[in-house]
């Protein structure tokens, strides 16, 4: 015991010194950046450049050849950044590539910076950070693309803070990884506490590096949560109205992670709140099932009570949503009797954490689904009578989950796997099962029936066409089956990769595939048992997990078939991998077998690998955000 205490102190000292050195190095690096900044000619506007491949009418440029470009004059200087400003919002997204030359080389595909300027944006920035002789900028890559160019600025002084922000994030990631390495190898806490220590910092990294509004449909979720905060603050007849300043989305891009978003946050976060005009909250707003927006609305309400500005208000709403998700995952890992590591790893995949640290109600859906599955497994595997507490966990989680997305309702049928011995008798089991199903169905009717009835009215969809209908399914079952099979066969891999997070932001921020493949691999490993374990995954449980997952997959496809797919298409549109996150635990637990087993406990190794992969993912996010 004394020897262990001495080793603990030694390792604590070693890790403490390492973290201290990193902090010193961070400040030195920031000092170098600031010193270098004092020698840079800031805010140099390029007035003369050579245009090739564009039809030009004053400041309106139209791409006529595809491979059009703007050649800057000789620079021969250190370029910290290049900012491109457009006079009006872009009518279409533009692929923009900066080719740079240095003393040692000319232009080449390996010497480029690329980014996508999203539709509606008015600026895009590139952090160069090197001595270059000249550069060429390809704005757009297709004929017919248009933009109104305002200016090209070298070393935009406003972007110096973005460079410092990225430097700080990089160092904090390294410090975070070292701390987790220390915790897992020296402290060795219970697994639910380890995940708690991991999820909060990782979630905060996502919260600040994924720019506001860039997560799928985040503007709609924010506006819904904002309206709910009106109810929480008893706004009465003004429930549909809000401060115009709280809907100023300047420099933010829906479905796009942009450097201008970092700049807006850094510039405005310390500014006083603005009392703007009272306006109607922008549409659409979704409050049919308001419970899924309560965490976000609480954060917004607190910010409004203390009269905080829009940036703080927005980030606080995200933070409360993240806290709710972390609480759910902590509770789920604590309750689940087996596969704790598997459930935890699924909960910290890039996609799961991005959604948790945003305004999306996916945070609510995933968190509650994990609690429900954990509670069902606890009821299935534990011995003795089923306690009132355990039954209530299943009942309440089912009541909360069912109205969010009706497609997850079949998870409740796993209740039938609970051994009859845990009830007073067969009748008692069926009564409790009926209570769970009927209660969930009743709350679906209360919250979602008006919405379901409105969807039954045929309207033109996003393509200006009619969607497939349930009537089509009944009248053409064979052709429907072909479309479903064709969709599954075509998209099954991308659903899996998307579910883990190969495409973040609005599916526009592409994470290296090796990170996602590694995540999938360690989750598969976490499904295996230790060699000496007596646990066996019974055949009926595996079959039930797979069958319920299959039914939910069909329901997800059916919902997109009837709500998002034109009746002229041969593949179902709109199905995204994140919709399958709630059933990932069921699918991956099904991989458990007695052929592949651990010979040594490697739980901490897998967890450390996951933290490393997440750290690289966050680095990728900030490096790709220009």
TrEMBL record:
Record InterPro entries: DUF2142_membrane
UniProt key word Mitochondrion: no
Segments passing through the bilayer: 12-34, 168-187, 194-215, 310-333, 363-381, 393-418, 430-449, 511-530, 542-559, 579-598, 605-624
Signal peptide per UniProt: none
Keywords per UniProt: Membrane, Transmembrane, Transmembrane helix
Glycoprotein in keyword set: no
Protein name according to UniProt: DUF2142 domain-containing protein
């Amino acid at each position: 015991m004394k020897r262990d205490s001495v080793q603990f102190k030694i390792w604590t000292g070693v890790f403490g010194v390492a973290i201290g050195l990193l902090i010193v190095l961070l400040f030195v690096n920031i000092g170098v950046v600031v010193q270098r900044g004092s020698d840079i000619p800031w805010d140099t506007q390029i007035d003369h450049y050579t245009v090739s491949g564009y039809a030009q009418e004053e400041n309106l440029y139209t791409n006529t050849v595809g491979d059009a470009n703007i050649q800057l004059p000789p620079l021969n200087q250190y370029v910290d950044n290049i900012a491109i400003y457009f006079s009006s919002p872009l009518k279409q997204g533009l692929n923009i590539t900066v080719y740079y030359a240095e003393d040692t080389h000319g232009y080449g595909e390996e010497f480029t910076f690329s980014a996508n300027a999203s539709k509606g944006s008015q600026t895009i920035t590139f952090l160069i950070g090197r001595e270059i002789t000249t550069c060429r900028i390809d704005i757009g890559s297709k004929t017919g693309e248009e933009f109104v160019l305002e200016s090209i600025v070298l070393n935009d002084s406003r972007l110096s803070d973005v460079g410092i922000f990225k430097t700080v994030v990089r160092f904090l990631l390294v410090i975070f990884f070292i701390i987790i390495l220390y915790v897992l190898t020296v402290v060795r806490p219970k697994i639910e506490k380890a995940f708690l220590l991991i999820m909060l910092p990782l979630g905060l990294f996502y919260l600040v590096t994924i720019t506001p509004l860039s997560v799928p449909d985040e503007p709609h979720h924010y506006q819904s949560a904002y309206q709910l905060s009106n109810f929480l603050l008893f706004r009465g007849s003004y429930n549909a109205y809000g401060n115009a300043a709280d809907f100023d989305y300047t420099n933010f891009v829906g479905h796009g992670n942009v450097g201008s978003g970092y700049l807006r946050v850094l510039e405005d976060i310390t500014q006083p709140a603005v009392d703007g005009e009272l306006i109607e909250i922008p549409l659409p707003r979704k409050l049919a099932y308001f419970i899924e927006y309560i965490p976000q609305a609480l954060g917004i309400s607190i910010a409004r009570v203390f009269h905080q500005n829009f940036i703080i208000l927005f980030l606080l709403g995200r933070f409360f949503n993240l806290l709710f998700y972390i609480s759910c995952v902590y509770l789920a890992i604590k309750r689940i009797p087996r596969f704790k590591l598997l459930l935890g790893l699924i909960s910290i995949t890039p996609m799961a954490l991005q959604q948790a640290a945003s305004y999306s109600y996916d945070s609510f859906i995933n968190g509650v689904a994990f609690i429900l599955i954990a509670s069902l497994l606890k009821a299935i595997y534990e011995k003795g009578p089923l306690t009132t507490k355990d039954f209530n966990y299943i009942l309440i989680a089912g009541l909360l989950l069912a109205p969010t997305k009706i497609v997850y309702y079949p998870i409740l049928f796993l209740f039938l796997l609970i051994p009859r011995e845990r009830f007073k008798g067969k009748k008692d089991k069926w009564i409790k099962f009926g209570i769970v199903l009927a209660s969930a169905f009743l709350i679906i009717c209360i919250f979602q029936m008006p919405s379901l009835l409105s969807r039954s009215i045929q309207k033109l969809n996003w393509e200006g066409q009619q969607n497939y209908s349930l009537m089509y399914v009944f009248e053409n079952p064979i052709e429907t089956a072909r479309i479903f099979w064709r969709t599954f066969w075509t998209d099954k891999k991308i659903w899996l990769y998307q579910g883990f997070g190969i495409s973040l932001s609005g599916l526009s921020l592409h994470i290296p595939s090796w990170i996602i493949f590694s995540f999938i691999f360690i989750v598969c490993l976490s499904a295996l048992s230790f060699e000496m374990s007596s646990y066996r995954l019974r055949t009926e449980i595996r079959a039930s997990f797979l069958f319920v997952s299959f039914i939910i997959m069909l329901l997800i496809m059916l919902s997109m078939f009837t709500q998002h797919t034109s009746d002229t298409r041969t593949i179902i549109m709109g199905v995204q991998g994140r919709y399958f996150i709630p059933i990932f635990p069921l699918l991956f637990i099904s991989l458990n077998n007695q052929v592949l087993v651990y010979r040594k406990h490697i739980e901490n190794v897998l967890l450390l690998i996951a933290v490393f992969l997440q750290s690289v993912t966050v680095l990728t996010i900030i490096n790709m955000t220009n």
